[in-house]
């Protein structure tokens, strides 16, 4: 029926001699404006609905002058038939109305405009020129890095962490919450556990000068991840955090849209299809829940936004915070070197050609960067001196200064970042979609709001680190990773590559303080589950053991680790005078335990990666990683007792004299 109507309108539009997509849409709008409003919901049907449901339906009808939503409210069966469905739809419309700032009509109006611009191929950067913005490039081990890290450490007692974790993780293909996945198979810490460990380590350090410090963590969940995240926190007793310091804000899904007129897509007659809105929701939610106001009052100075499955990012949190303080950045994006043409967003300064107030520093998606740069030169090409794009690659973890953030969020947009649409069109007429689309928003687009509120005062920059040090997210399913590797990628983004990169990063750290160990180069990588990974040594240094680079100096004397070894070091006060390892060693000490390892030499069968047996069934978490870890033999020392202890050649822990 609907198809017939469309076909009639389409033929009519053609008959009027309108052929461009724009003309066709205008003609369609004109014709569909004649939808007969007599057919709208009858009084008897309206009487079935709750007051809020009725209001929502009536609002939709009143808004829908052109009849693009007629399929939602027209031709309802008479009262008595399908009443439950009608009520359910009305309640859902009321929910959608309430959850979007400005209501469903605001959402649909924005969507229509953006869909029109998308179909017309409007270039959002028409009036801009891109230049490389101001920022800092820091290298682990260099003095500028150390200084920034120290400044960050001194300021860390006043930060707040925000973890955006509402994503479905379709690419990873995991049915549970990504935060529950294990970062590695040596200490088996989940992503959420690891982030909590990091925050607790920072807090512990800050409490040495101020015992009242409590560093808040906010997790943004969505309908897809909320229950599992809450359950994980409860089951694991908040990973040692005070439940009072953890809050959860939940983002809502938004209506899916079936056509270029923002017609609501339906799952069935009585259910509007909804889809995730993107991590850009986080800013409005933090504002709406009053958290930003509260933090500002409490004297918190920065919010640090992290993503769900990139454990390496914690390395760069403090130096980035330090740079934010040094350069008085209102917003600072953690970046990595970007290859020219790489499918990664870049941070750019967009100079407005006529109005300096409209200039801003912001992420530009890779598919927009090349066309923009072509209007000014050769396009997205490498700098011949570095071999990389001159524009830093956005790893999309942000440090935002609190006062300017609060001021920006109090502006008229209330933190609702500019949305975009990305429909996949069926054909060149750009009117019909392959599947429903929706408005999306990204947290890195907040600079548009900073610029709106603060004009040229907005000071936004970046801090760039080596990729090995800060960026190895687990985003892709094993099969997708294998395909990427076969196509020549060195960053498959799987659970296994993220785990391997964690070990390699710790190899680098220990090597920097003179530990005798092989650091894995690209040529050394072996394949596990089809993904190149380190052959070892597998090293996990907990955030408490090495919160900052200077902490590595607790390795004071000779230390040797062979390639086949696995090592876990955890605790604030572990000092190494002398250690040799050829096998597996786990040392975990409590927050007030001081342990010196002096003369310990361990040789045992150790641990081994084992490929999966294709004839066997494995749990989902194992399948997506592609291997298991056989722990044949382990030397394990766990001590919680406060005090000073020594672990020497005897292999026995004794009290220090
Ligand atoms: P990703 O790009 O990893 O997307 O999100 P995703 O939705 O989680 O995974 P795919 O695309 O379905 O495979 C980057 C970060 O943003 C969060 C994710 O949880 C992740 O930390 N995110 C994403 C949200 O919080 N909300 C969203 O609507 C989308």
Automatic annotation (TrEMBL):
It comes from the Eukaryota. GO terms for molecular function: UDP-N-acetylglucosamine diphosphorylase activity; UTP-monosaccharide-1-phosphate uridylyltransferase activity. InterPro entries: Nucleotide-diphossugar_trans (IPR029044), UDP-sugar_pyrophosphorylase (IPR039741), UDPGP_fam (IPR002618). It catalyses: a monosaccharide 1-phosphate + UTP + H(+) = a UDP-monosaccharide + diphosphate. Its EC number is 2.7.7.64. The keyword Nucleotidyltransferase applies. Residues 1-15 form the signal peptide. Its cofactor is Mg(2+); Mn(2+). It is an enzyme of class 2 (transferase). GO terms for biological process: UDP-N-acetylglucosamine biosynthetic process. Keywords: Nucleotidyltransferase, Signal, Transferase. Belongs to the USP family. This is UTP-monosaccharide-1-phosphate uridylyltransferase. It comes from Fistulifera solaris (Oleaginous diatom).
